[in-house]
Design a protein that fits this description.
The chain has 147 residues and is an alpha+beta fold. It has helices at 4-10, 84-94, 106-123; strands spanning 34-38, 52-56, 97-103, 129-136, 139-146. It folds into two domains: 1-66, no CATH class; 84-146, no CATH class. The protein binds zinc ion (ZN). This is HNH endonuclease.
Amino acid sequence: MSTLTEVGDRDGWRCWLCDEPVDPDMSVNDPRGPSIDAVTNAKPKKGAPVPERLAHRACNTRKGAVKAVVPWSSDLFVVDPAPIVETVERLSRKGGREVVARCPTHQDADQAADWLVDRLSRLAPDQRFATEVKPGGGQFLLALTTR
Ligand SMILES: [Zn+2]
């Protein structure tokens, strides 16, 4: 177990789920106050510690009782976006390439790619991701790859 300050400092006092700042001075009993979330969507390897992340109290998954959901930005034009947490977990484990969204234009896909890479730099700082945009079916497919 880490202390709240250790986890908060490591995550830059930003909530791993909603990507909004967390105020370290706010009461831990406040819904917007800081809390430690145990990342349990993925079954941890035997003996490995469950990763701990900083979350707002209201965003906390409460030891996995609430499924962790990282929303795509509402500013993006994406069709059928993949669930981010599950996709990142799979790619971190197995590597490879997964199509994560379809976009109406190349520009939309580029914007979504930029947003996703920036978001993942905080969500999964230990893993490097790259994006690919390819035309397909009259739209543009955005794929995420590990590197
Ligand atoms: Zn939050």
